[in-house]
């Protein structure tokens, strides 16, 4: 080339069309009726917020935590930059003397899983919970010192949901006092294992324990997979990365296969079950019920995580919808400086209908997550005293709530992305990669469809118990309460006579309870009286789990805004008012979405349906002026959002163009491939060697 | 390093657990009741299929069309490889003497948009339709010769949906007989323009025509943007790529800004409106109604495209669901070689419910696309004769159908992906990138929410006409027919008394017609009698558009399987039977999804709802054995699908491992970043310089 091709493209210094995003957001913020900061403190506590700002200040100055290039990186560069973040975080924790909460906040703000994530989330916890003292010394101590980097290898190429179908074997060899790990088929390759592909040097491997010729099913082993000196795979092991995924490409999800690979006796995690040396005799683990408590805790965290997911998605979409103006609404034109301007899209009812219920859902998940943690603690105390009466309901609800809320989250992320119009499709929206990375939540920790079966089994069993007079309503078991109420009056009707009646908390709870109970009764009848098979009822089975969990979400929200001690003080009256609006909106929007189930039960009339819809629109109108303040209260910093559309300052278009300037394709004037793929067409052959080509 | 790091990871040669995918798919294929090839020919014609196989044979041997690396490429490599494909296709067309259909098939099979896509789809068609003879010579001829590579620049950073709000100006300068293009603000930057970022040297630019001080709104201009000799941007122009997107990263969507950039008078596309030289006098375009015909044609193509999208997604998910076995269904365990095996997930009702209606929907879109093309041709003939009576209904339905069917497609692609469990999340499923690339369809060519307003405006107007006695039912206007029927009996009830009644074609059509009419009547009442604003009714407005278009989809399917001459021959009886099952399944599954609207109208009773659900499950049972044959009939070659899960031969696990071997991270033993980010933790400082590090 006869010119310098390495010229970066720069936008001219021009302002966007007025009114600017800054002015628009300022006018939105002036409309809010409550103190944003007070609402943030109510949700997070002041302590947590202060810690977050402290950690944020550190990360914003750490090159290893810089997000500037996040949306441009190739897969390989994502892995490399993630490893850098992981190793730097180990140092930062020491330098900054961060405790576990601070470290969690750092990972939360970085907002991207990395190769070491499973080391912290699965490898170390498993080593803590399932090892003997000897094993703690051998495995846990080096893991805490990062000499061992670990992962958790359960899923196989051929088996995910059905853990009992795993094929990898661990055969005890009494002669040498070893276990022999083996992958008998291609489908037995461990697959999807986070951190295994390239980073880990150890793995917890779930393998079928075989001793004395008996197959005892899947059990956990600690296995060294890579050399500690040079990181090469150990002999007898085939290990690598499973390749590109829809998202999560900053993690090296891996595969591993074992070819008669021997590990010492001490590798078998022996806290709960043991294999005796020499004899190979097996002793069983104790009652597994205690571990259900842990599952409840994990799922409470997932529901709290859904709150953050909804908060992030709605923060971006609501702010951008206040900045983005499109069309003049002839019926009520907007004015700015006395000139008619286009209308911010957030003023269109359809946009409100797409976004504001998702804001309400974020708050709903907060209250249910909080309640799950409270019940988890109650239940742990009760179980310590031998009282297992709370466990079944809590565990069953937690399965369905994981399923329901993660599905809500992923749908809302995508709804929010689409509600951002064309720019939602740009990676700079922050919503695209977020959707991609969040998506595994609907499949892992229990596939969302399969999980509903656990919840529904419990619901049907409880229904049969209530009918048989073997279950009494109690404060801790709302399922029994709503089922009992239903059976007392299975032909009940909704008492609403005007739209505002639908905001009555008791009316709402009765309606959700009735609808859940009606569905459960119908399924029970089909199975118990008409002999329908479980398989043929799976569609309805997933519906009753959802109905029950929507009851739980609505109830926890409603109860909190009636009774919460902190909210019902005089000073917090403005918070309470807006949260009550949101509780109604969440409940009624959910009703409208699930309308068929309220109608088929004969519970709502057609007239009441019209009232319900009117009340939803009315609530949207009331929430509309609070919208930007409500998402501000989520207190999600720009560093966390990393979104051109969701910036706190509303400088959407400035950010879009700055981020476009950083696109690597814009670092040269003429694209790679021009010479061979475009020039032969555009520069005529005869002229190509002559004057015009030299221009 | 003291060892060769460049060692590729290879899987051991092991077979998957039996029964293999090959055996499972063979047994599925043995169950089909109809001739797969006959169904393919019915949909595509034998001629099209032969052409496809001919083109396929060429592409499979063309390195520029090789898909092997598709899922591993960085953004930059995607652009480079796309340019290679584009330039090679120009040569192939000549070498192979391909006509337009062959070329379309080549692009269809390659299945990825590229920098030249908009040159063919927008630049050339616009030049063909909107130019004078002089302009054809100046612009169209070089475009056809690829000396000009073009794009179509309409959308701006601040304006997408509202074309009238575009800010770029083109001011006529009578002194020099030029137009001056200018971007007055940052928001006026053209944005999202496919092919503009790096490849195009010309653009059609939509800019506000200003002449004699008057702003005449957006008009099209042909503008040279890059030098033909060396591809550098012209002076006065800022142009580049808008950066990474959620999908579509093989296309260089670009931005452009003009700084008082002059273009000659001839650049103004002057077929319809003109600006007179020297005086700058403007003359208006003729009636725009003719162009609505073209929109109908484009949307018919989109609906046909939805058919392919659904076909692709369901082919992958159905085949994999027949191969993937998970859990033993205790109630009816599967046997293979007399041994109990796990159950293919396609045998679970929930999986059938997720997948088989989407198969049916693909066929529904085929019949509606076909009908739209028939009506388009009828209407073109009618308009030639000055008869515009068909246009309104056809155009209105086409808006809503674009909205409805592309939304159906994107939802089904994602449903199919999730139905593939964990592996659906791997790029090797073929569904991830497909989802990403398909997604813009719900936003472009009219945002799916905004489009519904066009349809509903027509529906409300027609309703008012029917009430006023100003509209007569006719064969070509089913809207008037169902509205008239509704008004004759607005309290009608569904006559079903047993589940199988729901498969009665007349019952189905009456139900869909009634439900659409009821919704329209409700909205009309709210607006016309209660004075509700358009904005406050947007949610219901989008619902009535959907209700109408679901009626259209169902009707076209039902009518075809009653009356199609080719299908109702004796020889095609088996095809007809299976298509009738699918028509029922599509209709009843849609009813169930939209149940609330049938219930709120009082049209279905609770008992009938139970019958409907029973009939859906019954239809799933009947379609189940045909499932693999039905997707085989879509005749989508493995090259097109590029999916490990959807392969015709069922070798799912072999393909997953082969594709994992190709992951670039697996081409070295030890990952980049090991030395700086892992080694400092795992190799103890003291030992690092000593013996163990040299191992």
Automatic annotation (TrEMBL), chains A, B:
<feature type="domain" description="Acyl-CoA oxidase/dehydrogenase middle">
    <location>
        <begin position="151"/>
        <end position="259"/>
    </location>
</feature>
<dbReference type="InterPro" id="IPR029320">
    <property type="entry name" value="Acyl-CoA_ox_N"/>
</dbReference>
<keyword id="KW-0576">Peroxisome</keyword>
<dbReference type="GO" id="GO:0071949">
    <property type="term" value="F:FAD binding"/>
</dbReference>
<feature type="binding site">
    <location>
        <position position="155"/>
    </location>
    <ligand>
        <name>FAD</name>
    </ligand>
</feature>
<dbReference type="GO" id="GO:0005777">
    <property type="term" value="C:peroxisome"/>
</dbReference>
<dbReference type="InterPro" id="IPR002655">
    <property type="entry name" value="Acyl-CoA_oxidase_C"/>
</dbReference>
<keyword id="KW-0274">FAD</keyword>
<dbReference type="InterPro" id="IPR046373">
    <property type="entry name" value="Acyl-CoA_Oxase/DH_mid-dom_sf"/>
</dbReference>
<dbReference type="InterPro" id="IPR012258">
    <property type="entry name" value="Acyl-CoA_oxidase"/>
</dbReference>
<comment type="similarity">
    <text>Belongs to the acyl-CoA oxidase family.</text>
</comment>
<keyword id="KW-0285">Flavoprotein</keyword>
<dbReference type="GO" id="GO:0033540">
    <property type="term" value="P:fatty acid beta-oxidation using acyl-CoA oxidase"/>
</dbReference>
<feature type="domain" description="Acyl-CoA oxidase C-alpha1">
    <location>
        <begin position="292"/>
        <end position="460"/>
    </location>
</feature>
<feature type="binding site">
    <location>
        <position position="194"/>
    </location>
    <ligand>
        <name>FAD</name>
    </ligand>
</feature>
<feature type="domain" description="Acyl-CoA oxidase C-terminal">
    <location>
        <begin position="504"/>
        <end position="681"/>
    </location>
</feature>
<dbReference type="Pfam" id="PF22924">
    <property type="entry name" value="ACOX_C_alpha1"/>
</dbReference>
<dbReference type="Pfam" id="PF14749">
    <property type="entry name" value="Acyl-CoA_ox_N"/>
</dbReference>
<dbReference type="GO" id="GO:0005504">
    <property type="term" value="F:fatty acid binding"/>
</dbReference>
<comment type="pathway">
    <text>Lipid metabolism; peroxisomal fatty acid beta-oxidation.</text>
</comment>
<dbReference type="Pfam" id="PF01756">
    <property type="entry name" value="ACOX"/>
</dbReference>
<keyword id="KW-0443">Lipid metabolism</keyword>
<keyword id="KW-0560">Oxidoreductase</keyword>
<dbReference type="GO" id="GO:0003997">
    <property type="term" value="F:acyl-CoA oxidase activity"/>
</dbReference>
<dbReference type="Pfam" id="PF02770">
    <property type="entry name" value="Acyl-CoA_dh_M"/>
</dbReference>
<feature type="domain" description="Acyl-coenzyme A oxidase N-terminal">
    <location>
        <begin position="35"/>
        <end position="146"/>
    </location>
</feature>
<dbReference type="InterPro" id="IPR006091">
    <property type="entry name" value="Acyl-CoA_Oxase/DH_mid-dom"/>
</dbReference>
<dbReference type="InterPro" id="IPR036250">
    <property type="entry name" value="AcylCo_DH-like_C"/>
</dbReference>
<dbReference type="InterPro" id="IPR055060">
    <property type="entry name" value="ACOX_C_alpha1"/>
</dbReference>
<feature type="active site" description="Proton acceptor">
    <location>
        <position position="445"/>
    </location>
</feature>
<protein>
    <recommendedName>
        <fullName>Acyl-coenzyme A oxidase</fullName>
    </recommendedName>
</protein>
<dbReference type="InterPro" id="IPR037069">
    <property type="entry name" value="AcylCoA_DH/ox_N_sf"/>
</dbReference>
<keyword id="KW-0276">Fatty acid metabolism</keyword>
<dbReference type="InterPro" id="IPR009100">
    <property type="entry name" value="AcylCoA_DH/oxidase_NM_dom_sf"/>
</dbReference>
<dbReference type="GO" id="GO:0055088">
    <property type="term" value="P:lipid homeostasis"/>
</dbReference>
